[in-house]
Amino acid sequence: MSWTKKQIIEQAFEEIGLASYIFDLTPDQLDSALRRLDLMVASWQARNIQIGYPLPVSPQNSNIDDPIETSLTNNEALVLNLAVRLAPAYGKSLSPDTKANAKMLYDQLLMEAAAPFEQQFPRTLPLGAGFKRTDQVFVNVPDLNPLVVENNDQMLFKNS
Questions:
Q1: What is the DSSP letter of 117?
Q2: Residue 2: its pLDDT value, please?
Q3: CA–CA distance from 46 to each of 28, 43, 50, 113 (Å)?
Q4: Helix H segments across 71-130?
Q5: Number of neighbouring beta carbons within 10 Å of residue 13
Q6: Count of domains observed in the chain
Q7: What pTM, to 2 d.p., does this model score?
Q8: pLDDT of residue 160
Q9: CB of 6 within 8 A of CB of 30?
Q10: Is 16 a member of any domain?
Q11: Does any domain span residue 139?
């Protein structure tokens, strides 16, 4: 079962000490937290962190009851990092453990999003001492466009 944006927001308020069973959250507080959540995830997506969060086109189109299709680890990262962003606005200070966990989970998301750039070997790279064929000494660079369009507009691989 997926969480909703409202559940993430309520958990973040609970993390900063404003639990819904003690304090009733006003619609303005929920809307403000929803905008902060959307902005936080938008900044994450700018860093190529894709977590399955339905990001709205504009703040007016954001729905607090939208489901979030993420893992529980990603939900915890959302909750703790949103709590870090909300706490100063409510005059609350978070525990060092909460801040450390929020940073650790964010760093984990960054590591998962990081992918090394693909690079081709240059044609001048020798194959090395273990390569036994004598007719080829340098690396073959793969063809970057293996598709060919024939006269009848069919796409075929060059090898076939």
A1: P
A2: 84
A3: 27, 5, 9, 11
A4: 72-86, 96-113
A5: 24
A6: 1
A7: 0.70
A8: 46
A9: yes
A10: yes
A11: no
